[in-house]
Amino acid sequence: MTTTKSNLFWFLPLSKNSSEIYQRMSFHGGGAFDDLFESYTSAPNALEELIEANRLWTIVLDISVVYFWVIFAIGLPANVLALITILKMQVITPATILIAVLASLDGLALIGKFVATVVVQHDLYLGTTGCRFQFLIIYVSTMANWALAYICAERFVSMWYPLLRDKYLSKKSLCLALVATGLSFFIVFATISIVMRGADNTGHRCGTRAEHVWFHKNIWYWINASLFLFVPCLCIVPLTLITIVKLFWSRKPKHSETDRYDFENEAGNANTERKNQRTVTIMMTLAAVTFILLSLPSCIYYLAYKSSNDIVVEARWAVFEQVQFVFIDSSHAVNFFIYFLSSKLFRDRLYELVLPKSVSARCTRRASDSTALETKTEKTKQDF
Questions:
Q1: Are the C-beta atoms of residues 299 and 291 closer than 8 Å to each other?
Q2: Does residue 64 sit in helix, strand or coil?
Q3: Chain-centroid distance, C-alpha 198
Q4: Which of 106, 119, 86 is nearest to 8 (CA)?
Q5: Could you tell me how far CA 119 lies from the centroid of its own chain?
Q6: Which parts of the chain span the membrane according to its record (predicted)?
Q7: Percent of the chain with pLDDT over 90
Q8: What is the pLDDT of residues 73-107, one digit of tens each?
Q9: How many other C-beta atoms are found inside a 10 Å radius of the C-beta of residue 314?
């Protein structure tokens, strides 16, 4: 059995005992590093390059030890609050179901990566079974990205084709789509992991079986990257841009058949529903834009990284890999704050959940008065 570029990497710190090799597993599922210990023996300017590589790897270690604890401490409670707040909504729509699923998957992704971080930092025993179940972490993260893609698709249809939304985007159909996607991905990830993954004799290090190394490095690497990152991004980016265009157009007079449908239903409960739909759309559009920005470093890393025998070059890429880890892992922790800042409805439900009734009512009333004043000011400007 051999360890491959997508499973773990090594470095030899000069400031420690020379026989001590630090290991960090790449649970992201797509890291691509050669064995730096092998590169160390053939470096032309060994001392200078090792000093520089050691400095860079020290940065890598410092980031890897600290960053995820911060993200986990902030993100897990935030996702729990987001999930409970969404489920406390008076009306559960297909959109709120998808948002609740996204919050659940984000929370599970953080828990999985937290467990992986503890295992690596404390050098805990995994064994063959533990190594084979590593796929659950990247699987849950992949499903979270696809849940956001489904939300963007649902918002696109809701904004542009409201009649089709009512006809085709039922709660049942969306749940079936999520289950089918989750089951398909689970089969793919589980099959690859069970067949190709294993542990060394100590049970503390995971790797890819020798007969599957070529496939894992050259084929699965890109399949994994596509499922986890590229395909969701290719769905989210255009759908988000088109939805943003619709949000701006919806402020103009109604002319198209779709817009006329919206306009004719702007009365009573229909008007309230339309406002709620717009609020959810703005909230999730901001979440999608944030995800796109946070995933850019990962996209660059996957596409631009080329393995090198130069240990300094590898160390620089290792620093960049840690940076993209920080960004992509943060995408599982920020949605709650986006919802809170962008949606008055979400804030009201959160106040009702976490504050005493008297304080909650006061906060809700104050927010309503502020919104009414802003609406009146905007109307005055338009009349003027």
A1: no
A2: helix
A3: 27
A4: 119
A5: 22
A6: 66-87, 99-121, 133-153, 174-199, 219-245, 280-303, 323-341
A7: 45
A8: 999 999 999 999 998 887 788 889 999 999 999 99
A9: 23
Q: Which residues contact 116 (CB under 8 A, 6 or more apart)?
A: 25, 27, 134, 137
Nearest CA-CA partner of 333 in 150, 151, 141:
141
SS3 content of the chain, % helix, strand, coil (to 5): 75, 5, 20
Q: What is the mean pLDDT of residues 268-291?
A: 80
Q: What is the pTM of this model?
A: 0.79
pLDDT band (50, 70, 90) for residue 364: low
State the first-to-last Cα distance of the chain, in angstroms, to the nearest integer.
76
Query: What is the Cα–Cα distance from 314 to 225, expressed in whole angstroms?
Result: 20
DSSP tag of 2: B
Report how far residue 143's alpha carbon sits from residue 149's, in angstroms, rounded to the nearest whole number: 10
Report the sign of the C-alpha dihedral through residues 41, 325, 125, 307, in that order.
negative
Most distant CA pair in the chain: distance in Å? 79
Separation between Cα atoms, residue 50 and residue 311, nearest integer Å = 8
89 φ/ψ angles, rounded to the nearest 5 degrees: -60, 145
- What are the structure tokens assigned to 109, written together? 């992704």
- CA–CA dist 330, 339 (Å, integer): 15
pLDDT in tens, 196-238: 998 888 888 888 888 888 998 899 999 999 999 999 999 999 9
Bridge partners, 10 (sequence order): 23
**Given a cut of 90, is residue 152 above it in pLDDT?**
yes
Segment 298-319, tens digit of pLDDT: 999 999 998 888 888 999 999 9
Report the amino acid identity of residue 289: V
The tokens describing 18, both together, are 């020379």
pLDDT of residue 286: 94
Q: How far apart are CA 196 and CA 210, in angstroms?
A: 9
Residues 6+ apart with CB under 8 A from 248: none
State the residue for tokens 């039922």.
Answer: 170
What string of H, E and C letters represents the secondary structure of 204-267? CCEEECHHHHHHHHHHHHHHHHHHHHHHHHHHHHHHHHHHHHHHHHCCCCCCCHHHHHHHHCCC
Neighbours of 76 (CB within 10 A): 18
Task: Mention every residue, 6+ apart, whose C-beta is less than 8 A from residue 18.
Answer: 12
